[in-house]
Automatic annotation (TrEMBL):
Transmembrane segments: none annotated. This is Gluconokinase. It catalyses: D-gluconate + ATP = 6-phospho-D-gluconate + ADP + H(+). The lineage of its organism: Bacteria, Bacillati, Actinomycetota, Actinomycetes, Streptosporangiales. Gene3D superfamilies: P-loop containing nucleotide triphosphate hydrolases (3.40.50.300). It is an enzyme of class 2 (transferase). Coiled coil: none annotated. Pathway: Carbohydrate acid metabolism. NCBIfam families: therm_gnt_kin.
Length: 182
């Protein structure tokens, strides 16, 4: 009598693929870095995907338009696709649903963590950031452009004023097994 092979173990759940979104100064990089460390996945900052023309435009206090953003968004979408199997956290303002849709075209499993809060607090944060190309004068235009996550978009909204470790804990609690995907 031959032994039957043991059933294969269930596949490991894939590592999360996340976009930390929000207006400039919401703490995306600080939170995203801390979250990627806790999750043990790669991290990328959307600022690193901007071309020189975009940086020059924002440095001059001129908001980007959709044509300016498209190559930047495509580069971030490519990064997400490259990390779909291994997981990753990337920051990106992702202010419009159309931008988030572009990410979902290549990586439908992507989820969003929206850091949201008071515009005045964000303006103070941006004004206090030394050497960054995004001036505080553009914060209002970002809030005007922001389209919050829709009820059909996988994601969670967190209060940007909370301490970073508490934000990470809140995300992890929302994403824990047995709960619906954040």
């Amino acid at each position: 009598m031959s032994a039957r092979p043991a059933p294969a173990p269930p596949p490991a759940s894939p590592a999360p693929l996340l976009v930390v979104m929000g207006v400039a100064g919401s703490g995306k990089t600080t939170f995203g870095t801390a979250l990627s460390r806790r999750l043990g996945v790669a991290f990328a900052d959307a600022d690193d995907f901007h071309g020189p023309a975009n940086i020059a435009k924002m440095s001059a206090g001129v908001p980007l338009d959709d044509a300016d953003r498209l190559p930047w968004l495509r580069a971030i979408a490519a990064w997400l696709a490259e990390h779909a199997r291994t997981g990753g956290v990337v920051t990106c303002s992702a202010l419009k649903r159309g931008y988030r849709d572009l990410f979902r075209e290549r990586t439908p499993e992507v989820a969003f963590v929206h850091l949201h809060g008071d515009p005045e607090a964000v303006r103070r944060r941006v004004a206090a950031r030394p050497g960054h190309f995004m001036p505080a004068s553009l914060v209002d235009s970002q809030f005007q452009t922001l389209e919050p996550l829709g009820p059909d978009e996988h994601g969670i909204v967190l209060d940007l004023d909370a301490p970073v470790e508490r934000l990470v804990d809140a995300y992890l609690a929302a994403a824990s097994p047995g709960r619906t995907r954040p």
